[in-house]
Amino acid sequence: MNQEIAIEVKDLHISYKCLKSFSIKRSLLQMKKTQSTVFEAVRGVSFTVPKGEILGIVGKNGSGKSTMLRAIAGIFSADEGIIDLHGNSVSLLSIGVGFQRELTGRENIVLSGMLLGFTEEQVHEKMDEIIEFANLGEFIDMPVKTYSSGMHSKLAFSITAILEADIMLIDEVLSVGDTRFKKKSYNKMKELISNKDRTVIIVSHVSETLQELCTNVLWLHDGQVKMIGAPEDVLPVYEEFMS
Question: Residue 26, Cβ neighbours under 10 Å: how many?
Answer without folding.
Answer: 14
